[in-house]
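Thread amino acids onto this structure.
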């Protein structure tokens, strides 16, 4: 199954180049439990610079122009996904709803803009991007939120902008191994149709050594 790491609340704070100051968690935790497990996640999987996913994202990024602006949704600590992109000279912008994850992100990448917000509430920095990554994010969200997020991403991608995200190829639901919360995959055909409705084309899929399934899309 796909491994996840992610987000929390509706109070939005821009934390790049400044002090992380995210508001307290509301009763409804939009981090889907990842803020609660952050003390274990951050020093463990969140610090694994050679973690699963880095090689696929690095390969995907070769299709982007040099110095492209890339949005990392559900960026977590920034390791290893944001890191592999930053090391290749891309301008990364992170969004994650977990205050602890965002604090770890900024500590490691103090000059990279990062926003503490649930992706569905974020204004995505009010700009356009050449690419967007959502690793371990989509299946944590409700079905309707997933569909709306695809449209939202399409709205901030430049023409021919690229998107890569992870979710199982089959329609399914399961309990997240780390948080015990329900995860949901729409499945290949539903994701393809949702991308098409948002003005994007599903141009490929990949699977990595951790058995994570990648959807690769491009804005038409």
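Threaded sequence (220 positions):
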């Amino acid at each position: 199954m796909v491994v996840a790491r992610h987000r929390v609340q509706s109070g939005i704070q821009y934390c790049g180049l400044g002090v992380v100051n995210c508001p307290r968690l509301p009763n409804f935790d939009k981090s889907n439990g990842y803020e609660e497990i952050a003390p274990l996640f951050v020093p463990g999987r969140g610090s694994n610079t050679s973690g699963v996913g880095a090689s696929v994202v690095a390969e995907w990024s070769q299709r982007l122009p040099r110095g492209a602006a890339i949005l990392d949704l559900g960026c977590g600590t920034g390791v290893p996904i944001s890191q592999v992109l930053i090391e290749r000279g891309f301008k990364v912008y992170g969004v994650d709803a977990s205050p602890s994850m965002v604090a770890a992100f900024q500590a490691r990448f103090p000059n990279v803009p990062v926003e503490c917000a649930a992706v569905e509430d974020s204004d995505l920095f009010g700009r356009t991007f050449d690419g967007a990554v959502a690793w371990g994010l989509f299946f944590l969200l409700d079905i309707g939120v997933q569909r709306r997020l695809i449209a939202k991403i399409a709205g901030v991608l430049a023409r021919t902008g690229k998107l890569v995200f992870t979710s199982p190829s089959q329609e399914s639901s399961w309990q997240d191994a780390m948080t015990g919360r329900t995860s949901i995959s729409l499945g290949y055909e539903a994701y393809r149709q949702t991308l098409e409705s948002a003005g994007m084309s599903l141009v490929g899929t990949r699977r990595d050594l951790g058995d994570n399934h990648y959807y690769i899309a491009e804005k038409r």
